[in-house]
């Protein structure tokens, strides 16, 4: 395979140049639907990473981007959006081959990436300051400035979209960037950075370093030349980043894991609640931070819900993302596949009732890839590990509740607080309950849609800060007060003679 088909070895993009990482450690990048090698990633060293940080530092301090007008920055962002859109089809296909998700999902991600650049091009043109006429004849102004050198570290589940959620606002705000894609899904990042070059982002303003977390990610997080780290990934790594960032007290933004509740009341439209319940967990093969992985169902409809949910879960066709008849794609890697299969065994041993799925899919030549059946556990109880821990795969737990208070208590019985949903025909009850769910992203009679205008982020151990909307732009900005005395005269506090 490798001998006949040339595979690309990824390079770093530092100070406007494509450079081979200096280490000898090179690993294969795998198409999770077929097991084929689709690229090679060299693992950059600490020195490679420091070179990128230096380039970003110099670019930031030169003011080439930070001092550009909002018109100039917006024009570049709009061009990036146009270029992404112009090759949306190729980018989506590459995303599917790299990550395993079905093409329809990848197409959505790419379209959303273009929208995200347009959105941030738009909001930087809006007024963003304040002024006050304060005592002593002083005009106080509040202005926003870029934070400086920002380190952006992203996961593998939405390779292009999670990257753009950070790159677009960081660039819009005028920062310089050192970006690290996930080593599991790095393929589209190179094309994205070529697009930045084509769109005219000045050299040194965006830098990409490919490699692993403990070397590249850790170097970025520790560096005193980096002013902020924006991270999306697991809660465990988020904790490491927080520690590493303490050295220079850099600003941090953390988008972490979840174990989100999806509450179904007896007065909900059953078919709608089942439909969104399936979408909530099996979209992205469950490898979605906001997945509705804990379904809580009111006692009186519990049996009917479980039966219909299991029946429909079994109708989901699992297969390669490029096959238009597939409803659910591959698991991103063999490591993740094994982790999910382990959790399925844990669920069985804990006494949860397996009502659908539970196995690796190997028929129809799928054995070379990493596929798992949509898996449903009913009769789950709060202390089970499958209820408490983020599995990050197509595995859902269903629990029963009998009162509104119990539903809220079970929903919040988690260390996480990323997302949550409520299904009910009673609008007042739905609003009352969703307001009590301790999570940052919530839906009523709906699950999963995301809008670039609305803040994305979690309570509790699901993170710190918010992506998207004006909130993300503000995260990538410092706020400064400038006080201007309107009458130039001494203040006479200390004796003059
Ligand atoms: P991960 O935490 O293993 O890795 C994420 C990134 O961090 C990768 O680029 C990795 O190389 C890097 N990294 C690893 N160790 C590091 C270290 N010590 N220092 C700095 N960087 C390091 O996560 P993953 O397995 O790629 O992604 C899955 C996780 O991401 C899940 O927990 C999921 O919930 C979370 N996630 C959260 C959101 C959100 O918006 N809250 C979105 C997507 C994914």
Task: Write out the strand line-up for the largest beta sheet, numbering strands in chain order.
Answer: 15-16-17-14-13-19-20
Tally of DSSP β-strands: 23
Low-confidence stretches: none
Name the CATH architecture of the largest domain: 3-Layer(aba) Sandwich
Give the N-to-C terminal Cα separation.
Answer: 88 Å
Report the structural category.
alpha/beta
CATH superfamily of the largest domain: Aldehyde Dehydrogenase, Chain A, domain 1
Total number of domains:
2
Report the portion of residues in β strands.
15-25%
How does the major sheet shape up?
Answer: 7 strands, mixed
Keywords: Oxidoreductase
Protein name: Betaine-aldehyde dehydrogenase
Active site: 255
Organism: Candidatus Kurthia intestinigallinarum
Task: Note down, in words, how this protein is organized.
- It contains 15 helices and 23 strands.
- By secondary structure, it is of the alpha/beta class.
- It folds into two domains: 269 residues, Aldehyde Dehydrogenase, Chain A, domain 1 (3-Layer(aba) Sandwich), CATH 3.40.605.10; 184 residues, Aldehyde Dehydrogenase, Chain A, domain 2.
- The strands form six sheets. A seven-stranded mixed sheet has the order 15-16-17-14-13-19-20, with helices on both faces. A six-stranded mixed sheet has the order 10-9-8-11-12-22, with helices on both faces.
- The longest helix has 21 residues.
- 52% of the residues are buried.
- Bound molecules: nicotinamide-adenine-dinucleotide.
- Nicotinamide-adenine-dinucleotide binds next to helix 7 and helix 8.
């Amino acid at each position: 395979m490798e001998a006949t088909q040339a595979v690309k070895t990824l390079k770093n993009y530092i100070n406007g140049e494509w450079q081979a990482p200096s280490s000898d450690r090179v690993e294969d990048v795998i198409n999770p639907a077929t097991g084929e090698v689709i690229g090679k990633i060299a693992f950059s060293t600490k020195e490679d990473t420091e070179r990128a940080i230096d380039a970003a530092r110099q670019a930031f301090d030169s003011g080439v981007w930070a001092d550009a007008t909002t018109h100039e920055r917006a024009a570049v962002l709009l061009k990036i959006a146009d270029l992404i859109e112009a090759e949306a089809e190729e980018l989506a296909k590459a995303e599917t081959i790299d990550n395993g998700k079905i093409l329809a999902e990848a197409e959505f991600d790419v379209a959303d990436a273009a929208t995200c650049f347009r959105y941030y091009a738009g909001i930087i043109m809006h007024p963003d300051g304040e002024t006050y006429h304060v005592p002593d004849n002083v005009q106080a102004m509040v202005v926003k400035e870029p934070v400086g050198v920002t380190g952006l570290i992203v996961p593998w589940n939405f390779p292009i979209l999670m990257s753009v959620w950070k790159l677009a606002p960081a660039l819009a705000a005028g920062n310089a960037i050192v970006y690290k894609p996930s080593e599991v899904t790095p393929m589209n990042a190179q094309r994205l950075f070529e697009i930045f070059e084509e769109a005219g982002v000045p050299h040194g303003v965006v830098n990409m370093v490919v490699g692993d977390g403990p070397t590249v990610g850790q170097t970025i997080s520790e560096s005193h030349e980096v002013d902020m780290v924006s991270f999306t990934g697991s809660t465990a790594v988020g904790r490491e980043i927080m520690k590493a960032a303490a050295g220079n007290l850099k600003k941090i933004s953390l988008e972490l894991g979840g174990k989100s509740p999806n509450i179904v009341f007896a007065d909900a439209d059953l078919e709608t609640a089942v439909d969104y319940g399936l979408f909530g967990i099996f979209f992205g093969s469950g490898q979605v931070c906001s997945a509705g992985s804990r379904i809580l169902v009111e006692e009186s409809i519990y049996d009917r819900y479980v039966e219909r949910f299991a029946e429909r879960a079994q109708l989901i066709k699992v297969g390669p993302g490029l096959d238009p008849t597939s409803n659910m794609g591959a698991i991103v890697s063999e490591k993740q596949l094994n982790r999910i299969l382990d959790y399925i065994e844990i669920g069985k041993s804990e006494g949860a009732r397996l009502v659908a799925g539970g196995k690796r899919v190997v028929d129809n030549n799928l054995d070379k890839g990493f596929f798992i059946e949509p898996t449903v556990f009913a009769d789950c109880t709060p202390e089970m590990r499958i209820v408490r821990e983020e599995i990050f795969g197509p595995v859902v737990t269903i629990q029963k509740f009998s009162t509104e208070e119990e539903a809220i208590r079970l929903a919040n019985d988690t260390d996480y607080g990323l997302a949550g949903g409520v299904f009910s025909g009673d609008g007042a009850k739905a609003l009352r309950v969703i307001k009590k769910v301790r999570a940052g992203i919530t839906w009523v009679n709906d699950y999963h849609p995301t809008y670039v205008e609305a803040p994305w982020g979690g309570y509790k151990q699901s993170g710190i800060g918010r992506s998207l909307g004006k909130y993300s732009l503000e995260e990538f900005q410092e706020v400064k007060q400038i006080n201007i005395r309107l009458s130039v005269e001494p203040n006479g506090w200390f004796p003059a003679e």
